[in-house]
Design brief:
Layout lengths: L1 H41 L2 E12 L3 E12 L2 H21 L7 E16 L11 E18 L5 H9 L4 E9 L4 H26 L3 E12 L4 E2 L3 H6 L13 E13 L1
Length: about 260
């Protein structure tokens, strides 16, 4: 009997201890969160935005085209594509296009099906039909990087005479934007710092250390001037020299300062 009473007393004391431990732990967490919240609210900061941009003339032009052939057999279809591809590559070499600047982005061949009836139709209707392979088609998609942008129009004219399809471009772009992006960022930071110095003077406050920084960039979108139907419909429709214009690289920064 005494042992049973002792066990009950031990269990009761243990439960009370666990409850008290939970209460003190919860109070500690609440106090810590309250202090953190208080520190955040007591921190005086001010935010400035800056914008910078750099303009540059595109130094490359991308040209795209497809070679597509249909034939009774896979071998014949692929041979037709290979013939036009060789003529295209030979022409591009005469325009000083390097091998590394010619890229096949996709190559495929597929069977062509035709829905054919097993027996001829009669006055009572047509019997069931089956899909029958009637030939094959082969195609390649090729991208060409033209480093002498003044040759882009002439290159498109020449490719248009060789039997290529879906000829499009040129997409004028900047080959390496890293250095220009750095310049745009520097301008954006200077813009934000200038605004910060002027406003601090007007408000009569002192700026402390930078507490946060973020950047949003805008890389230039390639500019397309010629369309596929212009080059395919008539070679003379594509000008020999196409205006390149300018591309703009921008940077937008956000700087947060501590107010002393």
């Amino acid at each position: 009997m005494e042992t049973l009473w002792t066990n009950k007393k031990f269990i009761k004391v243990s439960v009370i201890f666990v409850v008290l431990l939970c209460i003190f732990t919860f109070m500690g967490i609440c106090k810590e969160n309250h202090n953190s919240f208080k520190d955040i609210n007591n921190q005086n900061t001010i935010v400035f935005n800056g914008h910078g941009e750099v303009k540059a003339v595109p130094d490359i032009a991308n040209v795209y085209f497809t070679i597509h052939k249909e034939a009774k057999t896979v071998k014949e279809a692929q041979a037709g594509v290979a013939s036009i591809e060789k003529a295209s590559l030979d022409f591009l070499k005469t325009k000083n296009i390097l091998d590394k600047d010619i890229k096949t982005t996709n190559s495929s061949f597929n069977p062509k099906y035709e829905n054919q009836a097993l027996v001829p139709c009669t006055q009572f209707g047509c019997p069931p039909s089956n899909n029958v392979i009637v030939g094959y088609e082969s195609s390649e998609n090729i991208t060409v990087k033209v480093r002498n942008t003044d040759d882009a129009g002439a290159i498109m004219q020449g490719l248009g005479t060789l039997g290529v399809e879906q000829l499009s471009g040129p997409d004028f772009a900047i080959d390496d934007t890293d250095a220009l992006q750095i310049q745009a960022r520097e301008k954006a930071i200077l813009d934000a710092k200038t605004k910060a110095a002027l406003l601090a003077k007007d408000l009569g406050i002192r700026l402390g250390k930078i507490t946060s920084f973020s950047e949003g960039t805008n890389y230039p979108v390639p500019m397309m001037y010629a369309k596929a139907d212009m080059a395919v419909a008539g070679v003379s429709s594509a000008p020999a020299i196409i205006p390149k214009g300018e591309n703009t690289i921008t940077s937008d920064v956000t700087i947060t300062y501590e107010i002393r």
